[in-house]
Specification:
Shape: flat
CATH topology of one domain: Pantoate--beta-alanine Ligase, Chain: A,domain 2
Radius of gyration: 27 Å
Distance between the termini: 48 Å
Largest sheet: 6 strands, antiparallel
CATH class of one domain: Alpha Beta
Helix content: 40-55%
Number of strands: 12
Number of helices: 10
Order of helices and strands: HHEEEEEEHHHHEEHHHHEEEE
Structural class: alpha+beta
Bound molecules: calcium ion
Length: 326
């Protein structure tokens, strides 16, 4: 740019500034408001970056897991305050944890500890709904929503497109797998209360099988085992010393090892062995999908909750398959 051109630009700029300063008086209040809003939205944007940092941290820790043959509650991703509690990034921090009652666990949640709504047999869904005090007729409307056919009686008293097309705002049955837990609200009979009851115990991700090393008590009960069986598993996982994450913890590398080790440790009833072998093909010892529940905190009190789901093929790359911030 030549000297004279930049000189005339300066003149124009001065004129603009002069005009703006006249308008500026009336705009003063508005500008102050805008600055406030800009500050808030900058904080929002930064919090979004922290969300990404949280997921990046989850991926880093998942990749540190060296036990590729099995996933357990002792793994680096499962319970690890050092990696997941109040990680500071400038004025912000994030924590990755999940909470049951008072108990906070700093770690990821594998999908294979829960019942998969897309693939579980109706018998398992019926048990689960009964345990959670949900009308078991709803397993029929759920399965009709997912199954490919338009037969509303092949799982019981169900509902297909014919029902949904007669609603005031008509739509069709999905006839395919659920992709988001809130999709349940489209299904006949489901309410927000029911979805909230189900949410902690179900998943839509992963293989559809149950990881014997991570399965929750409710998951075992949904398969048809008793609460006392679930207690046996909890004691077995802690080992003789009753302390988590020590040498003697019960970790299994196969279904057969689960049955023999648990039988040796706690003693299994005949019906427990029968139920386990009936579902033999429903079990595995690794997990493939992981929930990241991150909580972002800043000194400006912008708090954000992030939920993401990571799909990991052991030893390979991680794929983010779900992301929700609020
Ligand atoms: Ca259907
Ligand atoms: Ca059907
Ligand atoms: Ca132990």
């Amino acid at each position: 740019m030549t000297h004279s051109k930049s000189g005339s630009l300066l003149v124009i700029l001065l004129w603009i500034l002069a005009i703006l300063s006249v308008i500026g008086v009336s705009l003063g209040y508005r500008v102050a408001l805008d600055i406030k809003l800009t500050k808030a939205s900058t904080a929002e944007t930064k919090a979004s970056y922290i969300s990404r940092a949280a997921v990046a941290q989850a991926i880093t820790v998942l990749k540190k897991d060296k036990t590729l043959s099995h996933d357990t509650l002792n793994d680096v991703w499962a319970n690890n305050p050092g990696e997941f509690e109040e990680k500071m990034l400038g004025l912000y921090s994030f924590s990755i944890f999940h909470q049951e009652g008072e108990k906070k666990t700093y770690g990821l949640i594998d999908a294979e500890r829960a019942i998969n709504l897309n693939t579980a047999p109706q018998e398992v869904l019926n048990n689960l709904f009964e345990i959670l005090d949900i009308d078991t007729d709803l397993t029929a409307t759920l399965l009709d929503w997912i199954d490919e056919d338009d037969d509303d009686r092949n799982h019981g008293r169900g509902a297909e497109t014919e029902h949904y097309e007669n609603l005031r705002k008509p739509y069709k049955a999905k006839n395919g797998p659920l992709e988001n837990i809130n999709e349940l609200l489209l299904i006949k009979g489901f309410t927000p209360e029911i979805v909230a009851k189900l949410n902690p115990h179900v998943t839509l991700y992963g293989t559809g099988q149950i990881n014997l090393n991570t399965a929750s008590p409710i998951t075992f009960e949904a398969i048809g085992l008793s609460p006392s069986f679930a207690e046996k598993v909890a004691r077995f996982r802690l080992g003789d010393d009753g302390i988590w994450n020590t040498e003697d913890d019960g970790i299994v590398l196969s279904f057969d090892e689960f049955v023999t080790s648990l039988d040796r440790f706690e003693g299994l009833e005949g019906n427990e062995k029968n139920t386990l072998s009936k579902f033999k093909n429903f079990f595995r010892v690794t997990s493939t999908a992981f929930y990241v529940q991150a909580h972002i905190i800043s000194s400006l009190h912008v708090e954000k909750d992030l939920k993401a789901v990571l799909l990991i093929e052991k030893g390979k790359d991680v794929e983010v398959i779900y992301w929700h911030e609020n």
